[in-house]
Amino acid sequence: SSASNGHVERGNRTIIEGTRTQLEESGLDRRWWCEAAAAHAYVRSFIPSSRHPDIVPWMAWFKQK
């Protein structure tokens, strides 16, 4: 349900909005959507969040310090 997947849906929305912004700001055509989405998700995996400021998502996922 939407209520139980709220954090996942918000993450997806963040990637979609970031991808859209990257494409618009770069002037690239929409055919680059997949590459831009992958790049955006990759970069975000190395940015700490306010919820977990001491560890980036990549480190948490792969249990690295």
Q: Please count the beta strands (DSSP E, at least 2 residues each).
A: 0
Helical fraction equals: 55-70%
Unreliable stretches = none
Separation of termini?
34 Å
Tell me the count of domains: 1
Number of helices: 3
So what's the overall shape? globular
InterPro entries: RNaseH-like_sf
Summarize the structure.
The chain has helices at 6-26, 33-44, 57-61.
What does this structure look like?
The structure is a single chain. The chain has one domain. The protein contains three helices and no strands. The radius of gyration is 14 Å and the shape is globular. 3% of the residues are buried. The model has no long low-confidence stretch (mean pLDDT 89).
Q: Could you outline the blueprint of secondary structure elements for this entry?
A:
Layout: H1 6-26, H2 33-44, H3 57-61
Helix pairs in contact: 1-2
InterPro entries: RNaseH-like_sf
Could you list some keywords that capture this structure?
3 helices, RNaseH-like_sf, mainly alpha, 65 residues
